[in-house]
Amino acid sequence: MQKILFIDPEKCSGCRLCESVCSLHHEKVCNPTRARIHVVKWETSGLYVPMVCQQCENPICEVVCPMRAIKKDEKTGAMLIDYDLCVGCRLCMMFCPLGGINLDAKSGKVLKCDLCNGEPRCVQYCEPQALQYLNATTINLKKRRKAAEKYSELMKKMLATV
Description:
Layout: E1 3-7, H1 17-27, E2 38-42, E3 47-51, H2 60-64, E4 70-72, E5 79-81, H3 91-95, E6 101-103, E7 110-112, H4 121-124, E8 131-135, H5 136-161
Antiparallel strand pairs: 1-8, 2-3, 4-5, 6-7
């Protein structure tokens, strides 16, 4: 069964260890700007959201690539960039609606999550478990439970006012 990188922003502490681990694994340097994942912070609310390629079911990056350099890995489901074919036009980066593709300022190449060949390092080091690599059915179950909890809380509040 296909696994999905699940992000729970409510659990993210903003430590940015995921960025460091990613850049170390892929680029052999501790430089968060060279990571495939980036934590976006909303200062006013104290909210941290890890942003990374969502490995879309119908990936726009694959469609817009004129060189057909982006292909799905059948084993992991990750959309991979073949750098031997990539000409660096950056259309994939411009058209990604979720900002999941970044530019490495040092090398000039586009970077995106490759799920570390099915063992995402960011997940392994995320202490608060804001990043998890789960089966799609497990994610749906978690979302249903969370929705049921919110619904239950809402019902309790409503009954308390009656």
